[in-house]
Design goal:
Strand order of the largest sheet: 1-10-6-13-5-2
CATH class of one domain: Mainly Beta
CATH topology of one domain: Jelly Rolls
InterPro entries: OGFOD3, Oxoglu/Fe-dep_dioxygenase_dom, Pro_4_hyd_alph, Pro_4_hyd_alph_FE2OG_OXY
Protein name: 2-oxoglutarate and iron dependent oxygenase domain containing 3
Helix content: 25-40%
Bound molecules: 2-oxoglutaric acid, fe (ii) ion
CATH superfamily of one domain: q2cbj1_9rhob like domain
Largest sheet: 6 strands, antiparallel
Strand content: 25-35%
Shape: globular
Cofactor: L-ascorbate
Distance between the termini: 33 Å
Order of helices and strands: HEHHEEEHHEHEEEEEEEE
GO cellular component, one term: membrane
GO molecular function: dioxygenase activity; iron ion binding; L-ascorbic acid binding; oxidoreductase activity, acting on paired donors, with incorporation or reduction of molecular oxygen
Length: 228
């Protein structure tokens, strides 16, 4: 199946604009599901202390070396964890990011499809327990995740106020370019080898972010999560 996909030169140009701080979108002030999850469920959150990934699409929440499915675990009671507004907000954010990426790259928003995994991440300075937790390795998203064509990162906490370390780094010969997470800051870039990147180890505090990915291939698209 063929689908439109901008060429590598285009990527490089866009990548440079990102490094100059252009591909940033400020969504600060938004209350996202993870932020509401914590105060509503302090006991659960304490028990799930090692949780690092939450995927609202599948319900997968990482707990130490394993994943539990929140939707299965809570069943009908999931409504005590999330509300319809949380899901609406998630969809609104996804749409806003999608429109912004389309505009920045000069493509039609309808040619972008949300893809998986799209997830919340929580990183603190506790030791990684599985290779999966080793977020600091340099990687190419398309290789790591397969279907990604565009990666976006929405940060939910502030570098140096909420955590130390944890900056996002584009790995480039001669010039590493970093993005400092700020709550509400969104950065986005094409997901190929032109954008090899890593996250610095978090030395203290807790860093929250959402990785939202898009594909140009409709076969790899996923639907927004629904509140049921
Ligand atoms: O959280 C970040 O800043 C980057 C995460 C990342 O590289 C990824 O999810 O692939
Ligand atoms: Fe990545």
């Amino acid at each position: 199946m063929s689908y439109t996909y901008p060429g590598p030169n285009f990527f490089e140009t866009q990548h440079c604009s990102l490094a100059q701080g252009k591909h940033r979108l400020d969504l600060s002030g938004l209350r996202l599901p993870l932020a509401t999850f914590k105060p509503r469920h302090p006991v659960l959150c304490a028990r799930l202390f090692q949780a690092s990934i939450l995927d609202l699409h599948s319900g997968a929440l990482s707990v130490g070396k394993h994943f539990v499915n929140l939707y299965r675990y809570f069943g009908d009671k999931i409504q005590t964890v999330f509300s319809e507004e949380d899901f609406q907000l998630y969809r609104d954010v996804r749409q806003k990011v999608q429109l912004t990426i389309a505009q920045a790259f000069g493509i039609s928003a309808s040619s972008l499809h949300l893809t998986k995994p799209t997830f919340f991440s929580r990183i603190n300075s506790t030791q990684a327990r599985t290779a999966h937790d080793e977020y600091w390795h340099a990687h190419v998203d398309k290789v790591t995740y397969g279907s990604f064509d565009y990666t976006s990162l929405l940060y939910l906490s502030d570098y140096l106020d909420d955590f130390g370390g944890g900056r996002f780094v584009f790995v480039e010969e001669g010039a590493n370019k970093t993005v400092e997470p700020r709550a509400g800051r969104v950065s986005f870039f094409t997901s190929g080898s032109e954008n090899l990147h890593r996250v610095e180890k978090v030395h203290w505090g807790t860093r929250y972010a959402v990785t939202i990915a898009f594909t140009c291939n409709p076969d790899h698209g996923i639907a927004d999560p629904e509140f049921t």
